[in-house]
Amino acid sequence: TERSLQSAWNWVQGLTCWGSTNTKGALQTALADAHAQAIYLLSDGRPDQPPKSIIAQVQMQNRVPVHTISFNCNDSEANAFLYDLAQATEGRYHYYCEKGT
Fold first, then answer.
1. How crowded is residue 63: how many other Cβ atoms within 10 Å of its Cβ?
2. d(Cα 8, Cα 16) in Å, to the nearest integer?
3. How does strand 39-43 pair with strand 93-95?
4. DSSP letter string, 25-57
């Protein structure tokens, strides 16, 4: 609904970011929402935790697809993790590059 979209947009605008990439924590928070139908993970870097352990934990708890979006096309390791996470959860992987490559 329009109200839900506005509520989500207001929530996103209130977010702040800083120094690290706590992917595991973000996914745990998202997976704790029993009403979530999908998760969208936007990242510009490698996770602070081992990628394989994050994927294994998400697979144990997973009930929704995790769609991943990379904002760092130069980090092949980070992009491989995001791709693998999306594939493991039947989500989709996307990336954004300023130069269009």
1. 9
2. 15
3. unpaired
4. HHHHHHHT-TT-S-EEEEESS--SS-HHHHHHH
> Tokens in use for 61?
């708890």
What tokens were used for 72? 């760092």
Instruction: Round to whole Å and give the CA distance between 32 and 61.
Output: 9
Exposure pattern of 25-43 as b/e (b: 16+ CB <10 Å)? ebbeebbeeeeeeebebeb
Q: Which pLDDT belongs to residue 97?
A: 75
Do residues 67 and 39 make contact, with C-beta atoms less than 8 angstroms apart? yes
Mean pLDDT by 10 residues, the chain (101 residues): 88 75 90 93 86 90 89 86 95 82 50
Structure tokens at 74: 């130069």
Contact assessment for residue 40 and residue 69, using Cβ atoms and an 8 Å cutoff: yes
